[in-house]
Amino acid sequence: MDKRIDNYITKSADFAKPILNHLRKLIHTACPHVEETIKWGDPAVTREGKILRIIAAFKAHAALNFWRGQELRGGETKDEAMGQFGRLTSIDDLPSDAVLDACLEKAAALAATAPTPRKAKHEPKPAADIHPEFVAALGASPAAKAALDGFPASARRDYVDWIAEAKQDSTRAKRIATAIEWLSEGKKRHWKYERC
Q1: What is the DSSP string of 53-103?
Q2: Domain boundaries along the sequence of the chain
């Protein structure tokens, strides 16, 4: 049991709480070896790292989505909401426990036998060309250069691209001065938006 899901259910609309609690109890009865987690902000159940199902509560309905739902229900779905069972506004909208148990068992079997889909790898972007004025400014500030060199490639590229995109010399000069100041403090380009 994951405490985050307790919080999710507590914060859900009153109509959704009995639906979510019922589905949660049912999954742990039918498949006792599953793990609860949060995926994309919604309660999910996994088995050996593979998602079995996700439940979600919205303002006016809840949804039950089996991860491989098309295979599970033979392509039969209701189109009016996320998930394979349409808009759920009360426990009465759920199929019988026997139907849900069968779906859960089939979902667990699919998850156990199916390979995890692999994301296609992309070629890394080539290193960006650093503007000569930025190179000179970094040479004059060892602390800024050390910070930039210590950042991951994407964070370095943020600074390099920002300076390269300047259309006027005066804009580039201001950006270089700002970059040197922030880098001397060890800040990434988008430091204002980072979580503390």
Answers
A1: EEEEE-SS-EEEEETTHHHHTTT---TTSSSSS--BSSGGGSPPHHHHHHH
A2: 3-113, 132-193
The CA-atom distances, in angstroms, between 1 and each of 31, 70, 75, 183 are 13, 27, 31, 44
Q: DSSP state, 127?
A: P
Q: Which residues contact 165 (CB under 8 A, 6 or more apart)?
A: none
**Separation CA 70–CA 87 (nearest Å):** 17
The DSSP bridge pattern shows strands 50-57 and 42-47 to be: antiparallel
> Which tokens is 62 given?
């809840």
Q: Would you state the structure tokens that stand for residue 118, as one six-digit string? A: 């692999």
Length of the chain: 196
Mean pLDDT of 149-158: 90
Report the mean per-residue pLDDT for the chain: 84
The distance from CA 57 to its chain's CA centroid, rounded to whole angstroms, is 18
3-state DSSP call for residue 138? helix
pLDDT above 90 coverage of the chain, percent:
37
Domain 3-113 has CATH 3.90.1150.200: yes
Task: Give the end-to-end CA distance of the chain in Å, rounded to a whole number.
Answer: 28
- Helices 169-184 and 132-140, packing angle to 10 deg: 30
State pTM to two decimals.
Answer: 0.54
Select from 66, 129, 132, 68 the least CA-distant residue to 101.
Answer: 66
